[in-house]
């Protein structure tokens, strides 16, 4: 039986790990999904934000009802002369949404939210690498005083 939680008065059914994996496999047949435990899924695939952008190999680790953790495994993301990586959590996990504002929850397919948001993050990352400015919005403070978005 699907578990649910309330969100502004609506009941939202949590998508099971198997359902998330099924949607990911359907929408991204070239990618790989693995079950680490019955409640933990990893997805690995390539994302190219725009035709002139690089291709990135991305890994998403999702534990049921927790925030998905997204890392770029190839090419490795690095700080630039402009400053440290922008909008990442420790371990260079991408910051894709504001969890405290319920912008993502376990009733939402990762394939329809986290992967497109990762693509958009990578697009803004390439702009940041070139310009030194983060145009992707968000609320992270930055060590790069030239670029404090929020």
Fold and architecture overview:
The structure is a single chain. This protein is of the alpha+beta class. The chain has one domain. 19% of the residues lie in helices and 27% in strands. It has helices at 17-27, 114-131; strands at 4-7, 10-13, 32-37, 40-47, 56-63, 69-74, 88-89, 93-94. The protein has a 4-stranded antiparallel sheet with strand order 3-4-5-6. Strands 1-2 form a two-stranded antiparallel ribbon. The chain is globular and about 45 Å long. The N and C termini lie far apart (40 Å).
Task: Describe the structure concisely for a colleague.
This protein is an alpha+beta fold and 150 residues long.
**SS field, number of helical segments:** 2
Q: Kindly give the count of domains.
A: 1
- Order of strands across the biggest sheet? 3-4-5-6
Mean pLDDT: 85
Order of helices and strands: EEHEEEEEEH
Shape: globular
Helix content: 10-25%
| Unreliable runs | 1-6, 141-150
Going by helix content, strand content and strand pairing, the class is alpha+beta
**Nearest-angstrom radius of gyration?**
16 Å
Q: Give a quick account of the main beta sheet: strands, pairing sense, barrel closure.
A: 4 strands, antiparallel
Total count of strands: 8
Cα distance spanning the termini: 40 Å
Q: Indicate the proportion of strand residues.
A: 25-35%
Question: What labels describe this entry?
Answer:
disordered C terminus, 19% helix, globular, 150 residues
SSE blueprint:
Elements (H helix, E strand, L loop, with lengths): L3 E4 L2 E4 L3 H11 L4 E6 L2 E8 L8 E8 L5 E6 L13 E2 L3 E2 L19 H18 L19
Antiparallel strand pairs: 1-2, 3-4, 4-5, 5-6, 7-8
């Amino acid at each position: 039986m699907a578990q649910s939680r309330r969100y502004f008065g609506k009941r939202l059914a949590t998508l099971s790990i198997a359902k998330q994996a099924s949607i990911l496999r359907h929408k991204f047949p070239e990618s790989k999904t693995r079950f680490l435990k019955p409640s933990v899924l990893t997805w690995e695939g390539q994302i190219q934000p725009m035709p002139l952008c690089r291709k990135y190999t991305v890994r998403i680790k999702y534990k049921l009802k927790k925030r998905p953790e997204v890392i770029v495994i190839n090419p490795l993301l690095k700080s630039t002369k402009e400053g440290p990586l922008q909008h990442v959590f420790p371990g260079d996990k991408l910051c894709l949404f504001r969890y405290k504002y319920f912008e993502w929850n376990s009733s939402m397919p990762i394939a329809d939210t986290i992967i497109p948001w990762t693509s958009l993050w990578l697009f803004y990352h390439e702009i940041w690498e070139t310009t030194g400015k983060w145009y992707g919005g968000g609320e992270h403070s930055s060590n790069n005083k030239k670029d404090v978005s929020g």
